[in-house]
Design brief:
The chain has two domains: 45 residues, no CATH class; 85 residues, SH3 type barrels (Roll). Helices cover 0% and strands 48% of the residues. A six-stranded antiparallel β-sheet has the order 4-3-2-1-5-6, with no helix packed on it. A five-stranded antiparallel β-sheet has the order 10-9-8-7-11, with no helix packed on it. The radius of gyration is 16 Å and the shape is elongated. 24% of the residues are buried.
């Protein structure tokens, strides 16, 4: 079973302002928070609403956790039997599964997040995220 974990970019003044926080998702007065378990109990941090994404249950080829909103280099065999392709793709959740999509292709290599082909993660590398690095998805001619 995959671990339920969220990530968000902290937007409150203080030590973690502008940093990514991982933990439990919640709300305080309708504002999204990510809460961490500490020795003193749960501590919640207000986060930018659009930055919050759930952990897919997958790690990339370097062992880095893959979250919704991550931009990844992906190289997997094409469905049409063609050669491996190296694309920059955005990880998102849609229709009950995580997918990686670029301007020209969509890869559904992990089903519902509870299991995926053993080699899938070996072909994925997190290179940034849509919030900090949107330019990574720009199409250049």
């Amino acid at each position: 079973m995959r671990k339920i974990l969220f990530r968000g970019k902290c937007n409150e003044v203080g030590k973690y302002n502008g940093q990514w926080i991982e933990g439990f998702y919640g709300e305080d007065d309708g504002k999204p928070i990510i809460a961490r378990s500490t020795d003193h109990g749960l501590i919640g941090y207000f986060c930018e609403p659009d930055s919050i994404g759930q952990y897919t249950g997958l790690t990339d080829k370097n062992g880095k956790k893959i979250f919704e909103g991550d931009i990844c280099n992906i190289s997997i065999p094409r469905i049409d039997g063609g050669f491996n392709r190296h694309n920059k793709c955005l990880c998102s959740y849609e229709g009950g599964m995580y997918k990686f999509s670029s301007y020209s292709d969509i890869y559904l290599c992990m089903g519902n997040g509870y299991g995926y082909p053993d080699t899938c993660h070996q072909n994925i590398e997190v290179i940034g995220n849509i919030h900090d690095n949107p330019e990574l998805l720009e199409v250049t001619e």
